RNA sequence: AGAGAGUUGGGUGAGUGGCUGAAACCAACAGUUUGCUAAACUGUCGUACGGGUUAAACUGUACCGGGGGUUCGAAUCCCCCACUCUCUGCCA
């Protein structure tokens, strides 16, 4: 969430940022934050003063008791009754102000970076670059949901039997392709300086709040009610939360982690056209990269993450484009997001396979993720993450783009991982 | 899952109602000493929200797993919850 001081000190900038997100009552929201914070401060300060008085009296009573002057002690004690009532009342007011303030801050999204384009929807995203050649396919080309049946490598019907729609079963070369991609992505990330972590894929409530899935998006996560745990929608949640409530040394920055996990998304109500086959699933595999950086370094880190992801797509020989998301399409917690889309030649569509974002201090404020520098001062770090990469749509485009009448050719870079070069 | 024991500052660990934001030791940091290193010695050494200052200094309050209660006063007593450990059971 945003920092109140950030709102106070950069009011105009925050206001303009929220405008970019098409929030019409931004001024109202921000003024309300400041008013609530003022209220919080004043009740807090009154409470502290009275508490200080009470503490003094308590000490006096202790002293008098020790000296055996219990009559005098009794006299002072009577005054505390009144003070206690006041403290209780101020406590309640203060707690309410704090609660209201927090609830309000939860509803305010991150301030977009100055380079974020104005816009309302995906159509207003800015195409930063397009790379690679879109293949010309033979007569009788098939979309991937036909290809997987033809070659019997992914079975949706079996998944329905075992679990339900959106939980495919990968078989034979399909399963091998999954494993090859995961290993390829992990090896590449390690070579780029990311430390591999294998986190739990169920997380508690605190972690959900830490990265911003809660309180608003609980409907998107599967929930294990008996144990109060959520299945992760992305490895971002457990990996970033590794650093919750931590004060790092400045010399530890940047922290670079990579992790492979399955991801689970309920995607309630989002079924329709365009979601056939592998395009949208309830369970899918993803390798995620996360960085924790010094505030001065986070945008350089974002660019390096973007080029890193592009490098993967180039090695996989997939045509792709990079989008800078507009204010209306950007995630709630992000300050700047690049989406990478690959072209899927049979569907004749661009498919999002990665989303790389800088959250600045929006997540670290909730996470209490700070670092201590040379000057001994603690300040919030910046957090970033990106998919590198999400598997299903990569698989879809590899299958569609490389299909030939004789079979599907695998990208060269995967051959050693696969142990075969054609499906 | 059953029974028992625990949860204190970066770590170990004292502390059963006021003099405890918290002993002691270790680690860390700065300095003295030193040819260098080590040892020794001295000092610093938590976080949050306020006040204060150009910035400090200084200062108020809170925090001993989380929440609530008793009390003039709680790390200390009571209740609820979470987690950890040990034994028993189960299990990849």
From TrEMBL:
Coiled-coil ranges from the UniProt annotation: 47-107
Presence of the UniProt keyword Transmembrane helix in the record: no
Q: What class does this enzyme belong to in the EC scheme? A: ligase
Record-level GO BP terms: seryl-tRNA aminoacylation
Database matches in InterPro entries: aa-tRNA-synt_IIb (IPR002314), aa-tRNA-synth_II (IPR006195), aa-tRNA-synth_II/BPL/LPL (IPR045864), Ser-tRNA-ligase_type_1 (IPR002317), Ser-tRNA-synth_1_N (IPR015866), SerRS_1_N_sf (IPR042103), tRNA-bd_arm (IPR010978)
Q: Which of this chain's residues are annotated to bind L-serine?
A: 234, 265, 288, 385
**A cellular-component GO term for this protein:** cytoplasm
- Domain (Aminoacyl-transfer RNA synthetases class-II family profile) ranges: 176-411
Q: Which PROSITE patterns match?
A: AA_TRNA_LIGASE_II
Its predominant location is: cytoplasm
Coiled coil in keyword set: yes
| Entry EC no(s) | 6.1.1.11
Listed binding positions for ATP are 265-267, 352-355
Classification via SUPFAM superfamilies:
Class II aaRS and biotin synthetases, tRNA-binding arm
Q: Which GO terms describe its molecular function?
A: ATP binding; serine-tRNA ligase activity
What is its pathway?
A: Aminoacyl-tRNA biosynthesis; selenocysteinyl-tRNA(Sec) biosynthesis; L-seryl-tRNA(Sec) from L-serine and tRNA(Sec): step 1/1
Reaction(s) this enzyme catalyzes, per UniProt: tRNA(Ser) + L-serine + ATP = L-seryl-tRNA(Ser) + AMP + diphosphate + H(+); tRNA(Sec) + L-serine + ATP = L-seryl-tRNA(Sec) + AMP + diphosphate + H(+)
Do you know which NCBIfam families this protein is assigned to?
Answer: serS
Cite the entry's keywords alphabetically: Aminoacyl-tRNA synthetase, ATP-binding, Coiled coil, Cytoplasm, Ligase, Nucleotide-binding, Protein biosynthesis
The similarity annotation says: Belongs to the class-II aminoacyl-tRNA synthetase family. Type-1 seryl-tRNA synthetase subfamily.
Location in the cell reads:
Cytoplasm
Record-given protein name: Serine--tRNA ligase
What would be one Pfam family of this protein? Seryl_tRNA_N
Recorded source organism is: Algoriphagus aquaeductus
